[in-house]
Amino acid sequence: MRSVQDVITMLNAAAETGSGVTVLVEDFVNLTLALDSASNANLTVKVQGSISQDAPTWGSAQSATNQWDYILLKDLEDGSSLDGDVGLALTGTDDHRLFEVNVNGLRWLNLIVTAYVAGAITGKIKPFSE
Q1: What is the DSSP string of 75-121?
Q2: What is the pLDDT of residues 5-43, one digit of tens each?
């Protein structure tokens, strides 16, 4: 039986560097991520995941006591992949994209904006299990 959760907004017109809303995803196998930028966005957004018991401090360095990593994105438009360490880099042109994020085995998920120069980004997820 398929289990679906309502859409969760993790970044809401974020216009600075920093982490979004942390989401507990351990009950889900996959999720769809929608990223929508505005105002000639010049920024990078990345997905972070963790299997730690407690949510990590996403903006702090990775360590044995603050365990997390960047997660690969699969573009639903053409099937290409975006390396988690690279994320989605926008350079002054707005975009509206859908990705699959394999969260199988992860406990926590976060979106983080890095390399911010201008614009805004909204990130929403729809978790599901098959």
Answers
A1: ETTT--EE-TTT-EEEES---EEEEEEE-TT-SEEEEEEEEEEEEEE
A2: 789 999 999 999 999 999 999 999 889 999 999 999 999
Domain boundaries, the chain: 3-129
The domain defined by 3-129 folds into Jelly Rolls (2.60.120)
What pTM, to 2 d.p., does this model score?
Answer: 0.93
Own/partner contacts of 52-58, CB < 8 Å, gap of 24 or more, are 52/107, 52/108, 53/107, 55/22, 55/108, 55/110, 56/108, 58/19, 58/22, 58/110, 58/112
* Strand-pair partners of 101: 31
Q: Which pair of structure tokens corresponds to residue 63?
A: 């360590």
